[in-house]
Amino acid sequence: MLNKANLQFIGAEAEFSQALTVLFGAPFDGTTSFRPGARFAPQAIRLDSNGLETYSPYQDGDLTDFPIMDSGDLELPFGNPRGALDLIKERALNILNQQKRPFLIGGEHLVTLGALEACAQIYPELRLIHFDAHTDLRQDYLGETLSHATVIRRAHDLLGDQRIYQFGIRSGERAEFVWSSQGHTFLIPYNFAGLEIILEDLKDYPIYFTVDLDVLDPSVFPGTGTPEPGGVSFDQLRQAVTKVCAQSQVVGCDVTELSPQYDPSGVSTAVAAKIIREMLIALHKNKK
Amino acid sequence: MLNKANLQFIGAEAEFSQALTVLFGAPFDGTTSFRPGARFAPQAIRLDSNGLETYSPYQDGDLTDFPIMDSGDLELPFGNPRGALDLIKERALNILNQQKRPFLIGGEHLVTLGALEACAQIYPELRLIHFDAHTDLRQDYLGETLSHATVIRRAHDLLGDQRIYQFGIRSGERAEFVWSSQGHTFLIPYNFAGLEIILEDLKDYPIYFTVDLDVLDPSVFPGTGTPEPGGVSFDQLRQAVTKVCAQSQVVGCDVTELSPQYDPSGVSTAVAAKIIREMLIALHKNKK
Amino acid sequence: MLNKANLQFIGAEAEFSQALTVLFGAPFDGTTSFRPGARFAPQAIRLDSNGLETYSPYQDGDLTDFPIMDSGDLELPFGNPRGALDLIKERALNILNQQKRPFLIGGEHLVTLGALEACAQIYPELRLIHFDAHTDLRQDYLGETLSHATVIRRAHDLLGDQRIYQFGIRSGERAEFVWSSQGHTFLIPYNFAGLEIILEDLKDYPIYFTVDLDVLDPSVFPGTGTPEPGGVSFDQLRQAVTKVCAQSQVVGCDVTELSPQYDPSGVSTAVAAKIIREMLIALHKNKK
Amino acid sequence: MLNKANLQFIGAEAEFSQALTVLFGAPFDGTTSFRPGARFAPQAIRLDSNGLETYSPYQDGDLTDFPIMDSGDLELPFGNPRGALDLIKERALNILNQQKRPFLIGGEHLVTLGALEACAQIYPELRLIHFDAHTDLRQDYLGETLSHATVIRRAHDLLGDQRIYQFGIRSGERAEFVWSSQGHTFLIPYNFAGLEIILEDLKDYPIYFTVDLDVLDPSVFPGTGTPEPGGVSFDQLRQAVTKVCAQSQVVGCDVTELSPQYDPSGVSTAVAAKIIREMLIALHKNKK
Amino acid sequence: MLNKANLQFIGAEAEFSQALTVLFGAPFDGTTSFRPGARFAPQAIRLDSNGLETYSPYQDGDLTDFPIMDSGDLELPFGNPRGALDLIKERALNILNQQKRPFLIGGEHLVTLGALEACAQIYPELRLIHFDAHTDLRQDYLGETLSHATVIRRAHDLLGDQRIYQFGIRSGERAEFVWSSQGHTFLIPYNFAGLEIILEDLKDYPIYFTVDLDVLDPSVFPGTGTPEPGGVSFDQLRQAVTKVCAQSQVVGCDVTELSPQYDPSGVSTAVAAKIIREMLIALHKNKK
Amino acid sequence: MLNKANLQFIGAEAEFSQALTVLFGAPFDGTTSFRPGARFAPQAIRLDSNGLETYSPYQDGDLTDFPIMDSGDLELPFGNPRGALDLIKERALNILNQQKRPFLIGGEHLVTLGALEACAQIYPELRLIHFDAHTDLRQDYLGETLSHATVIRRAHDLLGDQRIYQFGIRSGERAEFVWSSQGHTFLIPYNFAGLEIILEDLKDYPIYFTVDLDVLDPSVFPGTGTPEPGGVSFDQLRQAVTKVCAQSQVVGCDVTELSPQYDPSGVSTAVAAKIIREMLIALHKNKK
Fold first, then answer.
1. Please, which pLDDT band fits residue C288 given cuts at 50, 70 and 90?
2. Most buried one in A160, A220, B46, C37, CB count within 10 A?
3. Smallest CA–CA separation between F68 and chain E, in Å?
4. B58-67, C28-37, C204-213, E178-187 — which is least confidently predicted?
């Protein structure tokens, strides 16, 4: 008669067997060097998603029209990045093996690697679309190869040259920009210039789509570990994620790097929840 | 010889008998469902208005040039929305009956209804101009018909079809957008497109003008109960309120939904105070 | 295979059919006049209870030894106090009718009235033990009879003279202290003097036990709507609630008036969770 | 018909002509070296005094029984400490010359000097009772002789040896403690030991009483410029200020060094308001 | 073997003898009338500069390519503005006399005057470029002539008519705008219109360049004493400071009015650090 | 002529060659599971130590009387706890090998292990005195053996039975208390009962002394990762650390678990700095 307390992303109420997309949280920030706190993002997003409507006037779609499930958070060991990635990879493979799409909510950006490894194992032709303020292309950071600052370099280890498309980048070491320009990744600085052309080129490939929310300008998204002034606006990001999700074959995706405690207004969490809503609607609307 | 302590909106120093516009505060947020705190807005706005100049370079006008009075806050019963609205209506009628203009500072958006009822009683041809992020058109909310989420629907009960003009709307249930589109209200989503044309059409009607400040993007106005990313900029709102106040016959107006405690920087309160200054100057400048 | 996300008070994992005590949240603060926010307490307590051990060295007991269930939060209408109380009363009766003990987590103090009405209906000989900084004995507050400031007066309407025992009181109007002293309630100011004697006197009566956490000194519990300097220490309260729960027949109880957002350190929420843990262990340990 | 907005300390509603005690604020912190913000104290105390009862169960007295007036804040020039002190002295003399008692609300501790100068001019036999965490006995601070860190040394310039009684002191330079012990001031470290004996000795002298609220432990009063762990409890201070105000001839007094913005919980402001309430009641109750 | 703890602006590691530009901090806000705190800016900027890359993709330059030194903070007397200015002037002269460029980090805007006096002494043909939200042209403020609100008027006392170029101005008293328009300063309201033309005109003059960061919109820079909605974006300011530093002969400069404590997200501090980085790179790149 | 910016603990100004005690910071919180942030403690303590006097009236001693050096912070890899511990151990050995005493400022409690390993290598008869709210005796935490929750268990691996003295403990799993009681550690719950007797017993042994500041009650020390209500007061801790440092042979020590960002008042940081001051003075005063 009485139900147990539960908490999930608004509108993500499907049963696992019916779901096409399965949300899961990776509350991990064990390699964050500057300001930790991304671990608090998944629960904050779920709580504040209740201040959000399920309906999007932008797309005239409603979360409740689609079979989406929120499978809750992983319990991850701090101080052991590889162990954490293995647990993320395992959850993503569980979802992929049931012909469903994993949608990961970080956590710091390193968590992407676990889900990406799972997708690359299932889809050998995988391409990566990456929205971020930072290059994330270092070979190592203070001697560690698994770090929020190296995650796209590790993705390159896995996928190889010319399979990674980076947008919005406005911060990194000179050496990272140089390395990218030597044919290793496509890097569009500052904004989403050329996104539509690239989506057309990629339309036959399976896509992993990773959104580091610090691609946004800190005016609208102050709640993040390393705020970088000069980013894109909410509407620019909203339109760009909608295009990626609506126009390409996204087989896995994630949203990372919200650190809610740096934004006492709660706006950053609201932004994260609304971007996830728009992504979820675009992933399902007008799809067979 | 020594004066009692007092606190008022900067430059609103007229006596009641001389005043053309009379400010009053309605520190009420009793139906706010997500994040309360709009009750603190009137006092916060008065305090921080002292960091503001009385002069506007945008309009080359100065608050001290015009007869404006700040009549302080009502004391309103929490837990009794209708009782609160009756007190607001009573104060507004007192002001209207002296051929003055009531300028209400909320409080949550429901407070608008009390002042609107007073204006509609005096001006049967009243039209409503409504700036907001949210439709506010629900029939009821958790069974209650008096709510911040139903206030414009209640306004429609009072005014009828095609007398309400909504601008900047970017959030609501699908059913609310559908209901509006069935001829009940004019709804301009996202921005102020067409405002000048509508002002021209309305130039012979008495206008009630309600500004829910969450029409602003949360980057510049994080201090509100339900932040909705994707809103208008400060300059867009400043220009739009100036046009409404300068080019139409505003017989009553309000500014609502500042919740100062969600913005420890104080910027949201500064924004509210500056919008009120611009409205006040536009209401009086070049008017007979 | 994958479970839905859920959130409950730590260690409260029993099924309803097995449970002896059933927690439920009443996220309501619709009559709070000074600083709202108690609505956020139930979810905050659940989240932060995960930083707490289930084991109490004070009592050498562990939450996981006892059949306790967390049945989640009610959805309550803001702006309608009587409607909210009816829903609280209904939930409490559901629990009582299954021979279980309701344990309510507020919310503002008014929520107590709903659970008390349910207990009084089942147990006509009910007595009330009340820990608080405030008398809460006003006949009305701004004309409203249902208010956080009148809740114990309403309890007196229900229970009658000399059935209410108030401890820790240090704030109120003179008239409230006078009224109490006229034989209506037993009022022990400032602390828990005489608690053991009263518990001995009451040992054959069914007890409703309400804890307004602002009985604590604000140094250890700043996160509350109306902080009153000069309160009891954590250890004083911990010992007092343990005595009440261990030595009397508590048939219903509650913990109210945490407003977590006023305490960014999270200490107040940790205090609330730990007091609930100690109460729960004392309610079950060495009981038949 | 409609009153202007005003804000005053709760219960301080007398007209100037009737008042025995006149509150005034000195929102000045221009010499604060570590963390400014005491300028915000007077308005914060007035606002939050509305969450306080006018009745004190400790003394069974009510603010509304006594003729107390709040005459508002001075407007003081930052960057000119002597100019600010002159304005404070002028206001205090205005009050003293009408046979009333000035009650100053700071501001940083330097403001005391202005009111003390006024009282010493009227009462040549003046003694100073000083509650504080800090000695405040430096000859100068970074070359400046007018500073929050030198204020009691300046008081000594004015009053001379053995007329200053310092209580609760727990911080200072070694040289300050040595200088005090050479017969210049009576200094009781850490607490209020011997207060009653000293009050008996001083019962025939006019007293200026200055309370630097940082004498409190920062657990209960974190909102101050230089928090010093190891202070007195709220109840210790409450009892001590009550004794001074009830048992001696206080001709002028002040409460200083609240910096409300360092305490987002508002507890420090509530503490300040409650201490002022207790002082005001003790100053008037059972006095002819 | 072990180094002492030290803290400096990232990449500013040159020895004094090699340095071309020498940073120094003036942690002074003694005349700030509304909200103090700019004193905390220099240390906050140094600490958070460690979250910044030394490389700028905008200019393809790296701080570590250039000889820049951070010489730490001055110790300044609060309550004595002229004394503080003298210490600032002395430090700036020390730097100028070694044929180096002083780069001052405030502090409130008044600190500019000390460095400007030093530069004007060395360079009689000095021009001032001023970015700000506020005119800062008052003759006095509450009777004081040295104030954050008068600093550019004092600069005019020093430099005379038509040597001051103000950009981005959007707040002031009517009289200040009028005074400026009488031929005393060039004042470009709201933005940087015409900056390139003016830089061309000024290319043969020594320039002092002062940036009051509140020229930025408070959405991206909430951490300041007097936030003025309606300012420029980060990218607009970034481009404008780059032009001034790259295209003119800046002999001294400053960045003022960050008050980090009003922005708990830390974004404002990140903005300040990044603007300083861009200025430093533009000052040195492609220069002889 | 001009010095580089530097930042050190107040009064810790000796050169390395002269120093008897060498402070160093370990800004690491990579295994913190609940609320990270202890990484910010060393810099926050240094900054806020400037609000502290160097003189202690409690001990009549002054930091500047003794040869103490602050050697700054280590740069530690997040995500690699063993790597971080090795760097801490190396720094401690460097200091010990010069016949100096390492004084470590954490960071999370795990950092203790690195310094303890160094001391145990030099002093085979080492004993450990441990002040904490938590047992820290788990064998592993989520599978990881190196964790803030296991650090004293790891110390036991190193030192063996009956060499560890735990005081103030009030939280842990039942199994940890049982394990301790089986002869593995001496565990005094809640307070410092018996401390003097134990110090007498240990007076001929080299001591490592570790202070987890969460032994304090959260009322005075809210700024920590896992606040545990019911702890000791500041004066109790001050007296206890003074006794340990004055009456035993402390060859290494640390202070850990300040997380300054959870305490916006800054009181927790002030407490940490003052405890370090008292320890430093007690370590050197009246010592040969």
1. low
2. A220
3. 11
4. C28-37
Chain A / chain F CB contacts < 8 angstroms: 60
Q: What is the mean pLDDT of residues A155-181?
A: 98
Q: Do E22 and D67 contact (CB within 8 A), yes or no?
A: no
Total domains in chain B come to 1
Which residue from D minimizes the CA distance to C33?
A: D51
Closest CA to E256 of E184, E200, E208, E185: E208
The DSSP string of A202-269 is TTTSEEEEEEEGGGB-TTT---SSS--SS-B-HHHHHHHHHHHHHHSEEEEEEEE---GGG-TT-HHH
ipTM surpassing 0.90: yes
Q: Averaged over D154-183, what is the pLDDT?
A: 98
End-to-end, the C-alpha distance of chain B in Å comes to 37
| Interface with A, mutate which of E49, E220, E232, E235 (most A CBs under 10 A) | E220
D264 occurs within a structural domain: yes
Phi-psi region of A229 (alpha: psi -120 to 50; beta: other; left: phi over 0): beta
Chain B CB contacts of C33 below 8 Å: 78
Better-predicted residue by pLDDT, A6 or B89: B89
Is B226–A62 a contact, with Cβ atoms under 8 angstroms apart? no
The amino acid that residue E90 corresponds to is E
The average pLDDT across D107-134 equals: 98
Which tokens is C38 given? 């108690």
Contact A229 E266 (CB under 8 A): no
pTM of the model: 0.95
CB B5 within 8 A of CB D73: yes
User: How far is residue A80 from each of residues A72, A139, A225, F40, F76, measured CA to CA in Å?
Assistant: 21, 19, 20, 21, 15
Using the beta-carbon criterion (under 8 Å), do D36 and E33 form an inter-chain contact? no
CB B31 within 8 A of CB B110: yes
For residue F173, being part of any structural domain is answered with no
Residue partners of C145: CB distance under 8 A and separation at least 6: C139, C154
Reply yes or no on whether the pLDDT at D162 is more than 90: yes
C270 touches chain F (CB under 8 A): yes
Per-residue pLDDT of B233-267, as tens digits, reads 999 999 999 999 999 999 999 999 999 999 999 99
Average pLDDT, chain E: 95
Tell me if chain B has a CB within 8 Å of the CB of E174: yes
- Pairwise CA distance, residues D76 & E143, whole Å: 10
Return mean pLDDT, chain A. Answer: 95
Is E51 within 8 Å of chain D by CB? no
Q: How many CB atoms lie within 10 A of CB D240?
A: 23
Say yes or no: F265 contacts chain E, CB-CB below 8 A: no
What does the pLDDT look like over B49-76, one tens digit per residue?
989 999 999 999 999 999 999 999 999 9
* CATH number where C228 lies: 3.40.800.10
Give contacts of B215 with chain E, Cβ < 8 Å: none
- Are B131 and B149 in contact, with CB atoms under 8 Å apart? no
C35 touches chain D (CB under 8 A): yes
Are A71 and A42 in contact by the 8 Å Cβ rule? The answer is: no
The answer, for E142 touching chain B at a CB cutoff of 8 Å, is no
Which residue type occupies D286?
Answer: N
Of B32, B75, B77, the CB nearest to C78: B32
In a domain? residue E239: yes
Residue F182 lies in a domain: no
Distance between CA atoms of residues C118 and C209, nearest Å: 13
| Closest residue by Cα to residue A23 from A186, A253, A262, A281 | A253
Of the CA atoms within 13 Å of residue F222, those in its CB half-sphere come to 29
What average pLDDT does range F30-56 have in this prediction?
Answer: 93
Q: Verify whether the Cβ–Cβ distance A266 to B174 is below 8 Å.
A: no
Range of the structural domain that residue B259 is part of:
21-132+207-284
